[in-house]
């Protein structure tokens, strides 16, 4: 699947006497803002803006290159427990891992993403892309709220749920999501849960 500034290529290689015509399905608008400038001007990305500034990722997101930012909205940050959010925001390493887990190494327009694709993040982890009806899914969840916001150095998709990598979780949070959740309960009963958090 070929896209031109996120417009899908419908018919290619119509040869004319003075060149070639490719038919696309959208009008291509002028793109002037970098990914960082989009974050700075979009009201629904206020929490992300603060997180990016705290982790010194500003320079990356305004540099030349081709990235995809899966931008968590304010709503996405509000969905996770306040205690967990404060812990991540207060831990520079966990915060950087969290944000890098939302950045892909290449620019991927929604039209060009094929279901069943595995995409690598800057953190080195992977995200599985699928579909639910006409909606794209990330790791099985249809969380893309707004797609294909074009930037001079890539593309932004707004997501309404935070994608937290294992490296940004405590032992307790990891255990709760795994096959050792009963062991976690035993630690808590024994008054040892603080060691896991």
Describe this entry's structure for a reader:
The radius of gyration is 20 Å and the shape is elongated. The model has no long low-confidence stretch (mean pLDDT 89). With 197 residues, the protein is of the alpha+beta class. It folds into three domains: 1-29, no CATH class; 31-164, FAS1 domain, CATH 2.30.180.10; 169-196, no CATH class. The strands form three sheets. A four-stranded mixed β-sheet has the order 5-4-10-9. The chain has a three-stranded antiparallel β-sheet with strand order 1-2-3, with no helix packed on it. Strands 6-7-8 form a three-stranded antiparallel β-sheet, with no helix packed on it. It is built from nine helices and ten strands. Residues 1-28, 32-163 form the FAS1 domain.
- Structurally, the number of domains stands at 3
Unreliable segments (pLDDT under 50, ≥5 consecutive)?
none
CATH topology of the largest domain: FAS1 domain
Query: What fraction strand?
Result: 25-35%
């Amino acid at each position: 699947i070929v896209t031109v500034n996120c417009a899908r290529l419908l018919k290619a290689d119509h040869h004319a006497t003075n060149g070639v015509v490719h038919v696309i399905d959208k009008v291509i608008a002028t793109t002037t803002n970098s990914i960082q400038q989009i974050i700075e001007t979009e009201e629904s990305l206020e929490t992300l803006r603060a997180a990016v500034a705290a982790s010194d990722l500003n320079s990356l997101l305004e540099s030349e290159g081709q990235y995809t930012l899966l931008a968590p909205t304010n709503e996405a940050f509000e969905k996770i427990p306040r205690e967990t959010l404060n812990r991540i925001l207060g831990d520079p390493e966990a915060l950087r891992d969290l944000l890098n887990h939302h950045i892909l190494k290449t620019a991927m327009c929604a039209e060009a993403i094929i279901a069943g694709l595995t995409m690598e993040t800057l953190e080195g982890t992977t995200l599985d892309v699928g579909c639910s009806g006409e909606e794209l899914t990330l790791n099985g969840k249809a969380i893309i709220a707004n797609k294909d916001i074009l930037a001079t150095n890539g593309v932004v998709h707004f997501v309404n749920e935070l994608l937290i990598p294992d490296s940004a979780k405590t032992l307790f949070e990891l255990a709760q999501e795994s096959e050792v959740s009963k062991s976690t309960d035993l630690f808590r009963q024994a008054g040892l849960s603080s060691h896991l958090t």
